[in-house]
Structure formats: C-alpha cells, structure tokens
Amino acid sequence: MTVDRAKPECDAARMMRWSCWLLLCLACGIGPAQQVRLDAGQPPQADAGTDAGAHEPPDAGLDAGETRDAGDPADLAPVRWPQVSPVTHDVDADLASVLERPALAGACARVEAGGADQATRLRCGKWMFFNETFGTVGVPTALLDFNQKHFSAFFGRGFEQLGFVADPASANGHPIGLSPTTGKLGNVETTAFTCASCHFGKLADGRYAVGYANLRLDYGQFLVTLGAPLSLSFNANDANVAPAVRARLGPHVEAAKQTQGFTVEAGLVGLSLLGAGSGPNLSVAEQERFLALDPGSMDFLTKPLLDDGVWTVSRIIPLWNLPDASQRATAGLPHERLSWNGGVQTLEEFLKGFVAIGVGASAWNDARLAPLAEYIRSLRAPAPIAVADAAVVRDGARLFVTRGCLGCHDGPSGESSRVFGFAEIGTDDVYAKIYNAPDGGSPCCGLGGDPSVVTRGVKAPRLAGVFTQGRLLHNGALQGLDALFCLTPRRGPLPDGRGDQGHTMTCEGLSDDEKRQLISYLKSL
C-alpha cells in the first residue's frame, strides 16, 4: 500500500471536530440531592474500618467537644452533613472497590424488569454514571486505540497525562468515563464520554471519589492533541497544527515512524476515518486558546461543539451534597439553581436537555433517567483529608458568619439562595454572555429554554468538599484557597482571556490569622 504524504487523508483540524461528545462533561456536572448518604471511603490516616466522619453529629466538623455558648454565631455556619448508611461504595483508595463492577452488573436490567428497591435503583444509577452515553456521538474508537498503541508515552496509559483515570479493565488503554456508544460519525464507530469523565477522579490523599470535580481533566489539551499524532504522521510540518503541538508531539511521531508497520497502520486508520464526514475546523489561533486553558475549565458552547458565539469559560463543579426539596425550602432556594448562572431549575431538566444531543429526549423519559438522577442526588462530600484543631475550625466558622460570608453562602451546603450580578462579586463578567441571548430573550443558536435560564449572573457554589478544589471562582482562574484569600499572589489576566479579579471580601479587612482560620473551617466541610 502506498500512502500519499503530500495529501494527508486526515489532518489535526479535521480530527478536532470529533470532540463534540465533550458536552457530556457538563451534563452531569450540576444537580441537587435527595438522599444524604455516608461516603464509604476515608483518608488513609483514619481507621480503615470506618469513614472518618461516619459517627459524627451534623456539626462535628465545628465542635469536637468544646462547650458552646448560647447564640454563638458559629452555630449558623454551614456544617458537614449527617452520615447515614451507604448503598453504593463511592470513596476508597482501592479503585476496584469504588467501581464495584460486580455489584452494578445487571442492575439496570432489573430496574427495567420492574425492580423498584432503592439499592437496585442506586446501583443502576451508578452504572449509568460510569457507562451511559445516551447515544451521543463520540471519538472514533480507532483513533483512541491508535494513540494508545503508539503514543502512550505522550498521553499516558488511559490518557492519564491529561487528567483521566485509566480503566484497569481496558485492554486498549481507554480511560474510565469513555464508553462505546451507538452514535456514529458517518459509518465510523465511536467511544463517548459519560458523567465519570468529569466527575470522577483521585483525591490528593490517594482516594478515588465519585462526584469529584475532575479539575485535572485537561480538556483543551485533549481537544487539540487528539488528532494531531495521526496528522503529523503524514506531514510533520502540517501548518494546520499549532506550533506548540508540533514541537511537543514531533519527537514522539518521529520515533513511532521508525517502528515496523507504523506508516501502513497510520494510513489504514486515516482511510477508516474518511467515513466520518466533515465538520468545523479549529484555526491555529483557536487551538492556541484551547491550549492556554487551565485543566478543569472549558467553554462547552464553542467550536467544535454547538457554538453560541462567545468565549465563556467555566470550571467543573463537584456533585456532592445537593439539597433536597425540604432543605431548599428552609434555605429559601426557589429551585435547584443548576449551572454556574443558576438558571436551570431541575436536574431532570438538565438531563433532558443533554440527552436530546444523543438519541433524543423522547427516548429518555423521566422513568429511564430516574436511576441516574437518584444516584447523583445520593452523592456526598468525602471526609476531609485533614482537619485543623477544633477550636481553630470553630473560630473560622464564627468568622464566616460575623464577616458576612453567610450573606452569600446561605444555602444548606453553602450555596447561594439567589443569583448575583457580576458587579456585586467583582469577578470576570464574560460568563454573563453565555447563550448569547438578546435582552429579555431565550438562549441563542437553537438551544431553547425559558428566558429565565439567561440570568446574566453567577451563583455561589456549594462548599462541601472544597478541600478537594485546587481551582476556584466560576471560571477556575484562582489556584486554591490561599489565592482566594490573597495569602498568595493572584495571576492576573490569563492567556485564554479569563481574569482572576474580584471576590475581594476574602482579601480585604481580614488579618492573615483570620484568613487561615476561615480556610481551616472551609477545609473541614
């Protein structure tokens, strides 16, 4: 077989359109909770037999035995939620224990056959969380296999260098959170993202946790580099590939080309992808903007996805501690306030909007979506990795109330009961333009939805598990709590257009000791 290198069958720009499935990263990213549940894992330093907080009262993160004064403001601060017996096993240092594949096998079939007990429904929901693609179109499976076979030194086994968790059961080196799908690119078989791609990962202490906001996921790098190795295999100087990508991948491609049969295999893969059809390309400038993104952040409404015409970057949100209807009523939350702009009212509404991208909303009614929604609602924050002295934590909780933090973070898990204008918070306001809707209008570009979805504001996020979040603000521009409280310098304007300004209430009018007390309190949640 002769491969014409002067006219490559597949270049990087063409490959990039195959990332349309990444919208799924946000599909399961935001939602409420119905059942408060014990996480099954614990920090390694805790008793291996129990979760570190399994027998704590609801406010044990604040009070480790000291006597409270009547009317102490610390009593009003958000606390770690009470623990109840688990059904699924969602936090553990042992990956197989968290995946619990034998326990999940067949659960959805039993639900379809009429099984209505809670354990079966939650196990079905967890299976869906890790495996269900809703028929969305994904990445050409042959391309994933090709990259893992020849470029695992660059991508890592299971694409771990880009923030994924490798699936130990995958013979071809696929990651957890990518599953075979019925959606095809033309006649090309694809593998699509599931909820686990963005909401499952490894904590700093080695525990794996479901519901974790995977801020290690390097969406920009994955998007831009996925098709580049094949393109550069045909043309090492392909001008359609960003120079930074050519420089990084060039040595890997040259080494691969020296292996027996590589050129023929690359040609066959390229030919097999001809059946994928055509799609939008990313210019070099657009590639460079994606490459500049921090891991865990993305604009999910832009090329090669459905494009709303504005660059509005947001970070992935954890799924833990989502309040139920009673909790929302007590806190004055009018509805579930999903997405960073707080405009989507229910998890079911969010999921239905997503599945329409795949096989269509009509194929996924409330009954079929219910196990997944119930499982997402069951997730809760894992026990903190380490908790400071109880008195310091309680001092921080007191400051949280007396210094006004509760005014914004007044929900059952520290979320806000209302949406704020960006001028109130002072943060980067570009996200107000998401959906590119006219004043008083509905989202653009056929996205549909009630005009109330377009809030042009931002909500305060839940604080449960904030100790796991090394990236903060709605756009992910701040690197951790120390930067939020200005104990370390902020970075200023970022190459991808984001800014880390605003939220100065955590910087001004507080001593360094008070800031550290507040941080200790937040890390206890």
Structure description:
With 525 residues, this protein is mainly alpha-helical. The protein is 31% helix and 6% strand. It contains 19 helices and ten strands. It has helices spanning 12-16, 24-27, 95-99, 101-104, 107-112, 118-131, 141-155, 219-225, 228-234, 243-257, 262-272, 284-291, 325-331, 347-355, 366-378, 390-402, 422-425, 481-484, 512-523; strands at 91-92, 139-140, 178-185, 188-193, 200-202, 208-210, 297-298, 314-315, 420-421, 457-458. Strands 1-6-5 form a three-stranded antiparallel beta sheet. Strand 3 and strand 4 form a beta hairpin. The N and C termini lie far apart (61 Å).
> Tell me about the biggest sheet?
3 strands, antiparallel
Please count the beta strands (DSSP E, at least 2 residues each). 10
Strand proportion, as a percent range, falls in: 5-15%
User: If you compute it from the alpha carbons, what radius of gyration comes out, rounded to the nearest whole angstrom?
Assistant: 23 Å
**Stretches with pLDDT under 50, minimum 5 residues:** 1-40, 44-68
* Structure annotation, total helices: 19
> What is the N-to-C order of secondary-structure elements (H for helix, E for strand)?
HHEHHHHEHEEEEHHHHHEEHHHHEHEHH
Strand order of the largest sheet: 1-6-5
Terminal-residue CA separation: 61 Å
Helix-and-strand structural type: mainly alpha
Rough outline: globular
Mean residue pLDDT: 84
- The helix content, as a percent range, equals 25-40%
